[in-house]
From TrEMBL:
<keyword id="KW-0806">Transcription termination</keyword>
<dbReference type="GO" id="GO:0006353">
    <property type="term" value="P:DNA-templated transcription termination"/>
</dbReference>
<dbReference type="GO" id="GO:0032502">
    <property type="term" value="P:developmental process"/>
</dbReference>
<dbReference type="GO" id="GO:0009507">
    <property type="term" value="C:chloroplast"/>
</dbReference>
<dbReference type="GO" id="GO:0003676">
    <property type="term" value="F:nucleic acid binding"/>
</dbReference>
<comment type="similarity">
    <text>Belongs to the mTERF family.</text>
</comment>
<keyword id="KW-0809">Transit peptide</keyword>
<dbReference type="InterPro" id="IPR038538">
    <property type="entry name" value="MTERF_sf"/>
</dbReference>
<dbReference type="InterPro" id="IPR003690">
    <property type="entry name" value="MTERF"/>
</dbReference>
<keyword id="KW-0934">Plastid</keyword>
<keyword id="KW-0804">Transcription</keyword>
<keyword id="KW-0150">Chloroplast</keyword>
<protein>
    <recommendedName>
        <fullName>Transcription termination factor MTERF4, chloroplastic</fullName>
    </recommendedName>
</protein>
<keyword id="KW-0805">Transcription regulation</keyword>
<dbReference type="GO" id="GO:0008380">
    <property type="term" value="P:RNA splicing"/>
</dbReference>
<dbReference type="Pfam" id="PF02536">
    <property type="entry name" value="mTERF"/>
</dbReference>
Amino acid sequence: MLVRKVSNLKFIVRITSEYPIALSKHLKLSPVAWPEESFQKPFSTKVSNFPEYEMPTVTWGVIQGRKEKLVSRVIVCDYLKSIGIIPDELEGLELPSTVEVMRERVEFLQKIGLTIDDINEYPLMLGCSLRKNIIPVLGYLEKIGIPRGRMGEFVKNYPQCLHASVVVELAPVIRLLRGLDVEKQDIGYVLMKYPELLGFKLEGTMSTSVAYLVSIGVNPRDIGPMVTQYPYFLGMRVGTVIKPLVEYLVSLGLPKKVLARIFEKRAYILGYDLEETVKPNVHCLMSFGIRREALASIIAQYPQIIGLPLKAKLSSQQYFFNLKLKINPDEFALVVEKMPQIVSLNQKVIIKPIEFLLGRGISSDDVAKMVVQCPQLVALQVGLMKNSYYYYKTELGRAVTELVEFPEYLTYSLESRIKPRHQRLQSKGIKCSLAWFLNCSDQRFEERLQGEYIDAESRGPTFFMGGKLELPGSEILSEEEDDSDDEILYRRTVSL
């Protein structure tokens, strides 16, 4: 032992950046030469020589007896009070023995962007050693992608990270995120959104939530993008949050495969509160005349609808449609079933296509009929509508009444569908309805052109409660083809 009790003498040990050299004089040891490459490994626990993160000149202070510790503690607490920090929560915490050490900690925390108020929100951070805790943690966080300019914000949001061990606690979480296919450059972004991830146990909530989502059909390769978009689901309990939401949506007729596709592209749906938001919104839809059997199709087309302030939006749009288009509540319900996005569409956007149709001499009753039959009309760009309508009048030469009966004409691309197919019909001298040559796939259109007669128009696919997509002639499909109906439904109804 170098340190012995000497009467009337206080032995003070000061640890400086030259600590190994200083002790070598007493221990007769050579100073340690640290290899530079050890500081340059990605995600290393070593600390770079950043000016802001320089090691302190004093890390703890004086080695004291019991009485001296009590006196020093009072002095340190008085210092904290003098700068506006309330030390009450530090009562059971070991503090530095000198004001100099505490001042250095406070100034360091202020230098990275924290204020006295931030420190008062979590004063326990003052018990963290700069050398052993704060600087290694901050250095590691910066290396994994937390910008230095936002380090103070990060620590303010999750000050508990300062107590963590880089090797034992932080690094394993980062490895887990990388194992979930979160891109290396996205790690910092994910942690800035949800810094509490650093405090989760690997075998706990994170693992179980991922395992459950994969079990219902979520592609494991999509977990990483989901975490980047909405990392909060990693902290959700399966039994009390995720599973009840999934089971409720399945009870409305949504197949798990469709839900999996929804979650892959819009992971934030998992954050909708079942009791406070989802169920009230479903009841709200039904109160506005939406049929229960149509709910699954509505959610598949527009998943966000279950998380909106729906009552206010539906009330506003229903009044607007009744006032401007003379569409009654029952007809409005049909519009929502066909195009649920209508609840969020700006009314200034809606009115422009309506004014265009009225300006073409179409009566308000006929316009209302067209909108109920094809609500997508109200979301079209007027410029595209003008081009399609001009071609309809000049090239197709058809009556406006036929357009009223088949308003979907205006939703098809003029250049990629209407013109090429019309030219094919002219070359073969075929006369037919708009629906016959437009409302079918390219393959079906070619089959129709090769036919010796014009077949009857078939109805489109319909969605039934339970999740299956029934197609005309489905009785001739094999079992393997039936199994993919849910996927066909999702691709057909959800725009991603």
